[in-house]
Design brief:
There is one protein chain. With 306 residues, the protein is mainly alpha-helical. The protein has two domains: 106 residues, DNA polymerase, domain 1, CATH 1.10.150; 128 residues, hpI Integrase, Chain A, CATH 1.10.443.10. The chain is built from 14 helices and three strands. A three-stranded antiparallel beta sheet has the order 1-2-3. Helix 4 packs across helix 6 and helix 8 packs parallel to helix 12. The N terminus is likely disordered.
Length: 306
């Protein structure tokens, strides 16, 4: 309550978007965000302040913010929509803290985020992992990506994976997915087992399976979600791989490969953690391999009937 009152006391000073951004960054609401969210918000708010900061809070209109949103689109659809969402949060916060504001963000025309369809080819996965494991500084990043691909899991879960989830003697991993709290039980194949064994010899004294290789403040910490690309991109570049590939695409790649291999959907759910079969629909791609198999089965059926 005290934090809100303090925010309201300071908020009367804000007359422009830039001033509102400045006050929000000092607010209790911002301080309560996690460190990763704070970094993400701060980055978007700096873009807002740079391009829209001069606008008076009393002159926020739909056409004005539509113009600024269109400019944000040059940064990409996903980024533009994220900036727009944080702009809306900023204005709503101002309203809650004693400012008479109009929030135009829900009225502007936004471009829907396109479904991401990028897939890794098997040879690209191998080249990436070979490159990552070739240098000590990339070892943990390589392992995070390796586990995400091998097990069809989210990179976020692999970043935070702890040794108590790994049983090297039984060659299995038992983990709870952070997004929905689903338990999955996964086998560790020989190649991954070998890497994990080496990793435990080096990092088994602390809790994380693939931590940042250098300690910070005396502790080994997991990689941050919003900076993963900064560690993955140098490996892509060194391997000569397309920069459009991301670590996040590994889960989609692994699940789609299982679909194309004809794995039963019920079994795929046991790996992916999906509770609804319909959730797997996006992974059923229209591919040459899939079409060839379907037509081959039809032709075999027709031949048997002749």
């Amino acid at each position: 309550m005290l934090g809100v009152l303090e925010d309201k006391k300071e908020m009367v000073k804000a007359k422009t978007v830039q001033q509102l951004v400045h006050e929000y960054l000092k607010s209790d609401a911002f301080r309560k965000l996690g460190s990763a969210s704070q970094n993400d918000y701060a980055d978007c708010l700096s873009i807002i302040a740079e391009g829209s900061g001069h606008i008076s809070l009393k002159r926020l209109t739909v056409p004005t913010m539509q113009t600024h949103y269109n400019a944000w689109l040059k940064r990409g659809i996903y980024r533009a929509n994220k900036i727009a969402a944080i702009m809306s949060i900023l204005l709503n916060w101002g309203t809650k803290n004693n400012l008479d504001l109009f929030n135009p963000m829900s009225y502007i025309d936004k471009v829907p985020n396109p479904p991401r369809k990028v897939m890794w080819e098997p040879e690209q996965v191998k080249l990436f992992l070979d490159t990552a494991y070739s240098q000590w500084k990339w070892r943990s990043i390589g392992l995070i990506v390796h586990m995400a691909y091998e097990w069809g899991q989210r990179v976020g879960d692999m970043r935070l994976l702890t040794w108590d989830c790994i049983d090297l003697d039984k060659h299995r991993a038992d983990l709870t997915q952070n997004k929905r709290g689903i338990d999955v039980h996964l086998p560790i194949n020989p190649a991954l087992h070998n890497i994990l064994t080496q990793q435990k010899e080096t990092f088994g004294f602390q809790q994380y399976v693939a931590p940042q290789i250098q300690p910070k403040d005396g502790a080994y910490k997991p990689y941050k979600k919003n900076t993963m690309y900064k560690h993955v991109n140098p490996i892509l570049e060194a391997a000569g791989l397309p920069m459009e590939l991301t670590a996040m695409d590994m889960r989609r790649t692994a699940i789609t490969e299982m679909v194309e291999a004809g794995v039963d959907i019920t079994q795929i759910k046991q790996v992916s953690g999906h509770t609804n079969i319909n959730s797997l629909t996006p992974y059923i791609k229209h591919t040459f391999t899939g079409a060839s198999e379907a037509l081959a089965q039809r032709n075999a059926f027709k031949k048997d009937r002749e």
